[in-house]
Amino acid sequence: MRKFTMTLAALGLAAVGLAAPATAAQAAPVAPAGVGCDNAWPGGSDGYVRAWDGYDCSGAYLGGTQGDDPNWADGSGVFTGSDNDRASSVMNSGYSGGEDVVAFYRHAGYTGGYNCLKRGELYVDNLSRNTYTTGYNMNNSISSHQWVYASGCSRFMS
Q: Is it the case that residue 68 has pLDDT exceeding 80?
């Protein structure tokens, strides 16, 4: 009986040893958050605000501009009608000093609540973690943006 118990225990340990590596091998590696945005960073201040339709600065690049855009839906600026309500990650590589904060708004004409991205924050790789001053989730809901002074913001993205 003792031999049978020892054999059974050895087989059990072997089965666990074989199962553990197989399970670990099946798990796909996941890149740490921010790697895509780190790679998209222009390397310094170039005066631009940028947006992507995917998390972590991936997916379709919606555009970048040094100016304001009061209506992402009208197609008159860099952000066109097809970019409205699509951003899932944004970047601020604006110039230091003055109006170096980007305020993103839920509606055209700088209305519907806002949330600001400081120049030093660089980017937000997942807008679903942020809300406007009205409490509405920011993911896939930006319709306008403008450059502002930090003193003009009461809410900042993280």
A: yes
